[in-house]
Fold each of these.
Amino acid sequence: MEILQSLYRPYVSRPFAFDLQLFAGDKTEEPTSKKRADAKKKGQVGRSTELSTAFVLLIGFFIIKVMWAHIYGSIAAYTTYVFSHLNQPVDTENILRIFIGIIELLAQTSLPIMLGIMLMGLAINVFQVGLNFNTEAIGFKPDKLNPINGFGRIFSKRSLVELVKSLFKIAIIGFFLYDFLKDHLMAMPQFIYFDLPNSLAQIADIVFSMAFEVIAVIIVLGILDYGYQKWQTTQDLKMTKQEVKDEMKQTEGDPQIKGKIKQKQRQMAMSRMMQEVPKADVIVTNPTHFAVALQYSKGMVAPLIVAKGQDLVAKRIKDIARDARVPIVENRPLARALYASAEVGDTVPAELYQAVAEVLAYVYRLKNRRRA
């Protein structure tokens, strides 16, 4: 028993240490704006192909439905024309006429559809990712030829998710197709008793109804996929704490260096301010916490604040003023008001003109007595 206790004792007495450094490399930070901008330049953006496909199909079938009478009439008229001229000799002129007629027919029937699809595809992509033109995504990358990397992409977590999404999409669309067709398949054999225009019109109505129902399902799936793609892109772009720090150093500079620069700038500003104290006409004090140096000469709109400080800085201003024989006047309310309402280099605020004028008049009287 003692042997077991002696073996167990080191593990009991050893304190449990939770090392946070183990998680230092985890990507827990939201991507910065620079990270997102760089990813956008590379084409790494959250967009859903299902959403683009859905709206392209929607505009395509909508244009076909609107132009159905025109499309049917144009094709029927041209077919009638071709079959009515079959007895003509086969020569260059007749072949060229048929070819030009086919081009005109395609322009009348297909061009509006293609134009609408192109504009809708552009609009939905701009909606998803904005105007983003780059060629990096289609550039040649040698690592894409590596079969090991290829197998890694095929059997990756993302590929598995896409497979599940595709199977789910096929199942949902298949269900709606089955639910729609089961009510119309039995009626289709009756179309053989109709003439061609009526049967085509009936079939067109069924096809358009089925297409718009399926497109509505695809739009819903596309919206869900768009939200997922945005979320997945954010997850892929997440950064570690060290990456955030490194980016801040690159964009804004090392915080320690910036701190030293600011400290040096404060020291230089303080030195310039102290050099102006001997030129002041009066120092207004609290008397211990605040000190404000005022200067006024003929032609100025209002007295100028050439220096101000609190506590140790105020003491330094008063010491320099004494050495330079600049008058020091104690006025607690005025000192506090001047310190709070204006910065070095500003003129005295208008609401303090009267109080400052009284102080300056007192200083000028003292100077005149000394001269006398």
Amino acid sequence: MLKQKYFKRNGGLLLQQHLSSNEGNVEKIKLFTSKEMEKATDHYNENRILGQGGQGTVYKGMLIDGSIVAIKKSKMVEGKKFDEKKVEQFINEVIILSQINHRNVVKLLGCCLEAEVPLLVYEFIPNGTLYDLIHNQNEELPLTWEMRLRIAIEIANALFYLHSAASAPIYHRDIKSNNILLDDKYRAKVSDFGTSRSVALEQTHLTTRVQGTFGYMDPEYFRTNQFTEKSDVYSFGVVLIELLTGQKPISANQSEQVRSLVSYFLHSMQENSLFSILNPMVVKDGPEQEIMVVALLAKRCLNLNGKKRPTMKQVVMELELIKASGGTVIEDCGDEESETDDMIHSWDTNPSSSMSRRIPTDSVTFPLNSSS
């Protein structure tokens, strides 16, 4: 009776209802028992914890067949109150992931609804997050230019797949380096679909309460409450400049001012001083022309006007083209085509020009309580 009570409270009926209305997906979602989950995690042993966050705790587990999995134990109780909104988010993640099958999206194997709090069972991704790889660099695994470009292409491919899903496009709504996992070959896997949404084919946007992560969030969405596919493009642009610079999206200095990486990056582009803010490994390892063309693409992804940002399809095509051509060719640059040509020409004729070497006179900062 208790298991039945938990099953209902954890959204089991809601899930059954969704799955029965979309029968093609039913067999993809395995329902695990609470005993299987306890055994897999050694009764939720602290030594098995892979990570903890706002949505819950993730454990490393082993199923009866010997396969290694990641088990996400959702955080459903705030104080003594059960949070029904979080159940909705949890079921939403199950439904969204049941529709997705892509090599660069983390695979959901099943869930357990008969435990006190619901659990999600994913494929185990062994090499942590892209955030850790960028910001906690170790000498044993240098993050080369080639790796950075490949990872950017893999994330872009996943987002293009989500946005162009035939049945109903999916907006991720929380793209950030912490939500990009890396497998045994350091291939990118987009994860964390708790706030993602499917949209009808004819829909151009979602009007929702603002959710997301400060530093990655589309300012247009923040202003209008309307989330479009171009909002994911903006967040991807932030991840792209994180890969280029090795810097965090938001960083505080000693005077409690906060520096926005986006503002700092756009300022450096405007001042022709991009190479002074790049990660040293990028400068040492990457061909200048490729770096510049990727930076120009990132700049377009970060346009304040969502309509002027490229689609994820265009982003994928351009990144693939950069990889194949060494940055010498760029297509579909829209309003900035002439700017791209001018910049590339200036460096072809004078590679030590001010564009690549001038140091910015000041960094762009804004106070913590700023509305900008």
Amino acid sequence: MITGKVGLVLSGGGARGIAHLGLIKAMEEHKIPIDMISGTSAGAIIGALYASGHSTETILGMIKSVSTYQLLSPAYSLKGVLKIEVLMKFLRKYIGKDSFEALQIPLTVAATNINRGVTDFFSTGEMYQAICASACIPVLFHPVEWKGYSYIDGGILNNLPVEPLISKCDVIVASHTNPIMDEFQPRNARQVMERALMMSIVCNVEVRKEKCDHFIEPSDLGGYNVLDLRSADDIFEKGYAAASEYFQRIGY
């Protein structure tokens, strides 16, 4: 049984993070409350949208309205090939007030501070820059410059940011949407780099999953590209199916 104050941890994963919405829908159907959210990268985006009061179906529609072409806005920089401003415009359009305190559910966002080599957590004050920093995939996006530091994707050091919830929640549910495929045949240097990055991220998840009471990971997300928004419906359904099966299995 899942009782008491429930915290939800949402991993990164690019477009695969849409599976978080399916898990949240399953939690709603099983009447499992969500009292706090901690997220990184895609998980930070999904967490903010849900915490601001939008339904899972509405958020799915928002994401589907964004084309991959819109994301591919060149940065013309040696530090990244794309601009993160597209995400900033998206947040302004659908959330409204740029404030953690304005959310209906408390949210913590993790981002990687590349100057200090640590994970920084944000849960108060301005929110949009924190989310953009958290979702700034290295090399792909130009780092987010904020508060005197340069930030990249929170998943690099912490793809399952459970720490902010440990002392504040009775039960922690984790949704991980960034698995790596068991078989991999590299075709070029870029794929080797991506594979190495994913393996590193999975390692930092392993040391944190044991701190969660419930860990849910759809088994077949590895084949989706991080920018594959065209598969949003399929990814959503995989997240929903995995979570529904899990909650039924534990008898909730």
